[in-house]
User: Fold this.
Amino acid sequence: MIFDNSIWINLAAALAIGLLIGVERERSKGTGPNRAAAGIRTFTIASLLGAISILVNFWLLVASMVCVTIFAAAAYFRNRDDDPGLTTEIALLFTVILGALAISSPSLAAGLAVSTTILLAAKQPIHGFVRGVLTKDELSDLLILAAATLIVMPLVPNRFMGPFDAINPRNLWLIVILIMVISALGHIGLRWLGGRIGLPVVGLISGFVSSTATIGAMGVRARDTPALLSSAVAGAMLSNLATMLQLALLLAALNIPTLRMMALPLVCGGVSVAIYSLVLTLKSFREAGSEFNNPTEAISIKTALTLAGVIGCVLIATAALQTWFGQAGLVAASAMAGLADVHSAAISIVSLVGAGKLELQAAAIPILIAFTVNSISKAVMSFVSGGKVFSLRVIPGLMLQVSATWAGWWLF
Assistant:
């Protein structure tokens, strides 16, 4: 059998894979008569065994894997009283496979080897997180998110259907997943940070879940604790910055041309509210801190499905109004949708652009109108929850953000 020069590079990759995983296992195997059976030499030889076996014959690789499995099983039964885990034995068999993979795809094998080594080395942090940090409810939410992404998503049709061909089920389900992911990220931020660095950070994080709800919560906090007024207003305004960021992420996920068109308005609105919030945040640093000990649930599938249902209804209503009344109907539908949520209106508009039912240049005005109407609903929420003092600080920030956003569109 004749080998070309490139085979030596692949064999070197197999050698490096065995050494990499073996170094980590050598540090974990312990010492004395009860030490683990496999260390750096065993893993290196196992990787080279897989590489040489696949070079000679596929069935030799199968035989090698069977032999390694038998040896690993024997070592496990010998030491199971001291270490009932199977990690080393499974890693040894996987190293044989990675060594064989290095012959045909060394870059993929090397990447998998690095990932495996990181996973092996992170035993204590992973166990500590799963057992001491992750709660049962959070695990259930994580499984729901995984099922929605990996099981349901591939089964959802990816075509426009329904009345006026307005609904793409794949796009709607993608929105459900995005909402759950954003909600989970907000929950993680609340658990890690709490209120240790003030309400502004909490407001920014919670704004990714619901800016309107965040403004309501901050208003109640400011009304109950007047000393935290500036901090609560900063948190409320930073939730509006989160709205801009979230809207940009949704446009990026659904339609890049629309994002390019809306980039300047989003930047102007985001910068204006960021500056306004920064001034209030600096002022809040001089006030007493407060803990935020009421984190929301990690993932609310009900909220995500409800919003998706609203978006579906808005899509149908928007398409119908546009069909019946043209551009004027589209603007009216966007304004109605903006009363509840600016994202649903934006998503419906972007979906029409993606379906070729609306010109790109005609999409900006309905989105901006929905954003403006949504800001009005937030202003009402600030007055209802926080009273006159709170709303008189929130409403100017909202007006500044809306004005800057429209100015960005005018400049565009």
Remarks:
- The chain has a mean pLDDT of 75.
